[in-house]
Every structure is written in C-alpha cells, then in structure tokens.
Design brief:
single chain, 213 residues, alpha/beta, six-stranded mixed beta sheet, 46% helix, binds zinc ion
C-alpha cells in the first residue's frame, strides 16, 4: 500500500474515533433526524480551500457544492446535466436552507486558466474552457480595467469579480429570486485570500471585498 493511501486510511480511523464512537451524540442525531444544514456553500474544487476546514464546521453544518472556480450557471431548463443547479435546487427547495454562501478564493487555477485562454485558445472539446465562459462573462470589464496590475493581481481581481458574477447568475433562478425578495433567503459573497489567510466579505455599497478580521 502506498504511503499516500495509508495516510487516508489513518485519517479514516481518526474520523471513526471522533465521529462514530458510541459516545458521539452529534453524529447519532444526524443519522436519526437527517441533515439540516444552515448554509449552502458554493466553493471551488481547489484542494486548498475546504469550506468546512476554513470555517471550522462539523458534519451536518454545510451543504457544499464544489466546482471549478465556484461558478454558478444561468438558470436554464431542459437538456444537459446541471449538477450545480441540481444541488442548488435540493439545498434550497428540499432542505429549506436560508443562507447561500458563494466562497471564492485568490490564485484560482480555473480563473488563471481562463485569462490564459484569452491569449491562447484552448481546444474546443475542453470541458474547462466551456465552463469558464461563465467567469469570462463576469470578468470582461475587470480584465480591461486591471491591465496595469501584475499577472497574479489580475487573477486575484478576476477571482473576486467571478464571485459577483455568480451572484447575478444565481438570481436568474426563479425560486432563488422569490426567496431573496421575500427575505426568506440571504446570499453572502466571500473570498478567501490564500496568501494572507484572510477572508474578505463583499460590501454591496462600496462594491468591493473588505477584510474580515
Ligand atoms: Zn479555484
């Protein structure tokens, strides 16, 4: 057995000890009464940004959708396999979650890839290129306005714009918009600065992300 797999199995044994021991009432309740998460999180698949770890949450706390660059597609019906939209529908309509958190992060490989692709088009068959069109739409203004920044800063700025773009797409879902309009659902836009280890919260009035200390 490889050392990598062995480390996962050791982690599994720790999980059993922490969450599945007969003394753990929390997990017993989750099994008996089902999940009732208070937050639906749309996060990136990036291995460095685990929402449960970042926010010190326990099993049952977060209903998490992860995809490349924490993007949300436009509402559309018919055709295709809409995994992110299906997860949104389940979390909001079936579980009745009242808070959505779109969690972006700096140094996002998906966003960096999108910026690179603008100069060097990818193969048409690429799943990533198609998916990242969503971020491209959200970032087109930002890309033009941050030409003076370093490449790294451009990526980080576009990561933030992509989060705001995801909000716009999220509001095209009728059952999301209805709930937001009736104050039954709140949406929060956060961004995690990987280099500084700081969470940034989007401020609508100032139209920018502010540090959360
Ligand atoms: Zn990412």
């Amino acid at each position: 057995m490889s050392a990598e797999i062995e480390s996962l199995i050791n982690g599994y044994h720790l999980f059993r000890k922490k969450y599945f021991s007969k003394y753990n009432k929390h997990y017993e309740r989750l099994v008996k009464y089902g999940q009732k998460p208070k937050f639906l999180v749309v996060a990136c698949s990036d291995s460095r940004v685990d929402p449960a770890l970042l926010l010190s949450c326990e099993p049952g706390d977060l209903f998490v959708v992860r995809n490349v660059a924490n993007l949300i597609p436009l509402y559309e019906i018919g055709g295709g396999y809409h995994s992110t939209s299906a997860a949104l529908e389940f979390g909001i309509c079936s579980l009745g979650i009242k808070n959505i958190l779109i969690l972006g992060h700096t140094q996002c490989g998906g966003v960096a890839n999108m910026l690179e692709t603008k100069k060097r088009p990818m193969l048409k068959e690429s799943f990533i290129a198609k998916w990242m069109e969503l971020a491209n739409m959200a970032c087109s203004d930002a890309i033009n306005s941050c030409n003076h920044l370093s490449k790294e800063e451009q990526v980080d700025q576009c990561c933030r714009y992509a989060v705001v773009g995801s909000l716009k797409n999220l509001l095209t879902f009728p059952w999301i918009l209805d709930r937001v309009n009736s104050s039954a659902l709140e949406i929060h836009l956060w961004n995690f600065d990987l280099k500084r280890g700081i969470l940034e919260v989007y401020n609508k009035e100032q139209d920018k992300f502010l540090h959360l200390f």
